[in-house]
Design goal:
Nitrilase/N-carbamoyl-D-aminoacid amidohydrolase, globular, 7 helices, six-stranded mixed sheet, 286 residues, single chain, 27% helix
């Protein structure tokens, strides 16, 4: 029986990468002390910074990024898979990449994923975001093999694009991820149903570490980090928006069982969409 103890780290990242690294290290160590073999941090672990000029001033190339360097050391020290949900790295031409990286228990970078879908939205009460003004979108979906399971990587707004997670599941992912910095407004409306829906429709575990609370740059995020099983049941949830750790013991055989009960990955068919009424050959329209 394949088992994996996993953890999601909830944070309230500020502007300073150094301060955020200290919090990340403390919470990852807490997760390791609970027996976690895979630990995930939220989107923008390294810094949540609205001001674009200030963000650009702290950008580093991936190999020089202090958050990723600290994560590599920590993964090797603790002997676990450490998934930095994302952090901002230099993508050239004054643009950043919203990049997630998975480190193996030796500290080597196993896989990296740049967020594909940019959060360019206008919400109620004047809340507006244009992620594409600072971040270059990725164009490659990514899976990574852990020692007992294949994992599919997503980030935050990606969760609203089910075809991405379907492609990851079809590529063999048994664990899907969407580490996030969901706004409070959208989180209260949609966070739980989106996480559970992606788990149910793909017969996969869903792990999403979240940012939570009022941040140094003034934004407010929803929290409620989640671990969901392939039947859509919540296995673990962070209470509210406070920083902390949630842990769950996954039995990977549940993926096969869920997909056997509801084999929608196999049953999907190609089709076309037409507009207007259809008539069969020979039909007369009066």
């Amino acid at each position: 029986m394949r088992k994996l103890v996993v953890a999601a780290v909830q944070m309230r990242s500020g502007i300073s990468p150094e301060a955020n690294i200290a919090v990340m290290e403390r919470l990852v160590r807490e997760a390791a002390s609970c027996g976690a073999r895979y630990v995930q941090t939220p989107e923008m672990t390294g810094s949540l910074q609205k001001d674009r000029a200030s963000l650009r001033s702290i950008l580093k190339a991936e190999l020089d990024d202090p958050v990723l360097q600290a994560a590599a050391r920590l993964a090797a020290e603790l002997g676990l898979y450490l998934h930095i949900g994302s952090t901002a790295v230099d993508a050239g031409n004054e643009m950043a990449a919203n990049r997630g990286v998975v480190f193996d228990p030796s500290g080597a970078a196993l896989a990296r994923y740049d967020k594909i879908h940019m959060f360019d939205v206008d919400l109620d009460n004047g809340e507006s975001w244009r992620e594409s003004s600072a971040y270059r979108p990725g164009d490659v979906a990514q899976t990574v093999d852990l020692d007992v399971a294949r994992l599919g990587m997503g980030i935050c707004y990606d969760i609203r694009f089910p075809h991405l997670f379907r492609e990851l599941a079809l590529a063999g992912a048994e664990i899907l991820t969407a580490p996030a910095a969901f706004t409070r407004q959208t989180g209260e409306a949609h966070w739980h149903v989106l996480q559970r829906a992606r788990a149910i429709e793909n017969g996969a575990f869903m792990i999403s570490a979240a940012q939570g609370g009022v941040h140094e740059d003034g934004r407010e995020t929803y929290g409620h980090s989640l671990i969901v099983d392939p039947w859509g049941r919540v296995m673990a949830e962070a209470e509210g928006d406070e920083p902390g750790v949630i842990v769950a013991d996954l039995t990977l055989d549940e993926v096969k069982a869920a997909r056997a009960k509801i084999p929608n990955l196999k049953n999907a068919r190609a089709y076309r969409v037409e507009t207007g009424a259809q008539t069969n050959k020979g039909d007369q329209v009066a």
